[in-house]
Amino acid sequence: MLHDRLLVEPETDSAERQSTAGLVIPATAVGPKRLAWATVVAKGEHVRQVDVGDRVLYDPEERAEVDLAGRDYVLLRERDVHGVAERDEADGATGLYL
User: Fold this and answer.
1) Which residue has the higher pLDDT, 90 or 84?
2) Is the pTM of this model over 0.85?
3) d(CA 40, CA 73)
């Protein structure tokens, strides 16, 4: 990876969602802009605040998709990451910082 780029593996995209009331919301329904989670697979030499293995929050509409060995990845700049979830080794809980 070069410069401030991140290679992330997006979490499974659930095309259809279910509301808390049990209604199925199709993927074609227009709604508010949603951010997505992904796991960092590789990082460039100038990435400072994200490490390999971190879960990152990003905008799925601002991405470049890459296919490597039959698996789909997303290429992002570090500045396109909205948040990082880190695992706290002490109690195994996940904390989110923005």
Assistant:
1) 84
2) no
3) 10
pLDDT tens digits, 31-82: 666 788 999 999 999 999 999 999 999 988 877 899 888 889 999 999 999 9
Q: Which of 71, 77, 74 is nearest to 39 (CA)?
A: 74
Using CB atoms within 10 Å of the CB of residue 68, give its burial: 0 to 12 exposed, 13 to 18 middle, 19+ buried. exposed
Using CA atoms, how far apart are residues 65 and 28, in angstroms rounded to an integer?
Answer: 21
The DSSP secondary-structure symbol of 59 reads -
Beta strands in 1-98 (DSSP E): 5-10, 17-18, 24-25, 36-43, 55-58, 64-68, 71-77, 81-87, 94-97
Decide the pairing of beta strands 81-87 and 64-68: unpaired
**What is the Cα–Cα distance from 78 to 7, expressed in whole angstroms?**
10
Residue 78 main-chain phi, psi, to 5 deg: -60, -35
